[in-house]
Amino acid sequence: MSLDVPYLAEFANAGFIRRFTETEREALTRGMLDAPVASAVWDASLYGVPFNANTQLLWVRRSVAREAGLDLGRRLTWDEVIDAAERTGTTVQVQARRYEGYTVLINSLVASAGGAILENPEAGKDAVPAIDSAAGRAAARIISRLARSPAAPAALGNADEGVTQAGFRSPGGGFMTNWPFVYTAEDGNPIQQDFGWSRWPAVDPGRPSAPPLGGIHLAIGAFTEHAELAVEAVACLASPESQKAYMLGEGLLATFESVYDDPEIRQAFPMADLLRESLDEAAPRPITPYYPDITAVIQRTWHPPASVSEATPAETARLIVEVLHDRTLL
Fold first, then answer.
1. Helix (H, G, I), strand (E, B), or coil: what is residue 256?
2. CA atoms of 44 and 59, how far apart (whole Å)
3. How far apart are CA 305 and CA 95, in angstroms?
4. What CATH architecture does domain 57-206+291-324 belong to?
C-alpha cells in the first residue's frame, strides 16, 4: 500500500502495517537521502520505504528578480521576498487555503525558525505542544505580514498548489513557494525561460530554512501471507531506476541521492542540486499517530491568514491539548 508521509505513523501505531527488518531496512534504503527515510520511521523501526519524495523551492520570475535587484544565488529571507514583491508590484504566492498545504507552510516556517509544532510527537496523545514559542510567533509574524501586504494575492486564503501556480504565471506574478511540478508543467512554454529558483526562504537570516517534506511511502500490510514477495515488490518499485522514471514522468522527486547526478535528470531539472540539498534538509510534519488531529487544529486556528496574530501559537497549543485529550471536538 502507499501512504502519504505524515500518515504512516498512524497506520504503524495501529498495527496495520508490517515492520521492515533491520536487514531489509539496510538493503532497501542504502543510498537514500536522510529526511525521506527518517519520515518513514516509527518507534525506531522502518515501516515504509520512500517511493518518491517532494520538497518546495522559492520560484521567482527572473525579470522580477532583476527589477528588484535580487541575487538568486544566495539564500533569501521571507522579509526580503515580501519587500521585493512590494517594490515591484508583484505577488508572493503561497498555499494558504484551509487544507493540508497550509499546514505544510506553517510547519516549515516554525521549523525554519528553529522550533517544532510538538515537543515529543512519539508520546501520542500526551505529546506536548511546542508551537507556543519564539519560533511559533516568528512563523505567525510572517503569515500575518504577508496577509496584510500588498504583495498578498487576492485569493491567498483560498490558494492551493494550482491557484498559486496560476497566480505566478499571471502578469502580476513574481514569487511562489511550490513543488517542482510547476517547472516541468511548463515544458515547451516560453514562460519557463523566466523561471528562476532559490532555496525555500529563511525566517531568520542567520539560520538555514527547513523546506517542506512531502512524498509517498510504500508499506506492506501487517497480515500479508506473502511477506517475502511483498518486500521484493517494494524493492522493485522503489529502485533508483523506477524512481528516475517516475521523476521524469510525473515531476515527483527521487529519494536516492545518485539519481540527481543522472544526465537526463539534470537536463530536465536544472535545479537538481538544489532539490537534492533541500530534500535532504527538509522538515517533516510531526511524526505522530495523531497527525490528523494536529493538522486539523492548525488549519482551524491559523485560518484565515489575515486573522493570524502573535496570540495564534498559544491558541493552537491550547487546542492541541484539548483535542488530544478528547475535551474538544473539531
1. strand
2. 36
3. 10
4. 3-Layer(aba) Sandwich (3.40)
Q: What is the 3-state secondary structure (H, E, C) of 279-311?
A: HHCCECCCCCCCHHHHHHHHHHHCCCHHHCCCC
**Residue keyed to cell 542504502:** 30
d(CA 157, CA 150): 14
Task: Determine how many CB atoms are found less than 10 A away from the CB of residue 75.
Answer: 17
| Single-letter amino acid, residue 312 | T
| Radius of gyration in angstroms for the set of CA atoms belonging to the chain, rounded to a whole number | 20
CATH number of 2-53+213-280: 3.40.190.10
Cell numbers linked to 15: 498495527
Residues in the chain: 330
C-alpha cell of residue 215: 512524498
DSSP lists the bridge partners of residue 256 as: 32
Written as nine digits, the cell of 73 is 544565488
Q: What span, in angstroms and rounded, lies between the C-alpha atoms of 119 and 129?
A: 6
pTM, 2 dp: 0.96
Q: Where are the domains of the chain?
A: 2-53+213-280, 57-206+291-324
d(CA 47, CA 118): 21
CA distances to 98, 145, 269 from 296, in Å: 9, 23, 34
187 DSSP 8-state letter? T
pLDDT in tens, 303-327: 999 999 999 999 999 999 999 999 9
Average pLDDT taken over every residue of the chain: 97
Tell me the percentage of the chain whose pLDDT exceeds 90. 98
CA–CA dist 25, 91 (Å, integer):
44
**C-alpha cell belonging to residue 93:** 504566492
Q: Which residues pair with 92 in a beta bridge?
A: 175
C-alpha cell of residue 150: 500588498
Angle at CA of residue 155, ends 153 and 161, nearest 5°: 95
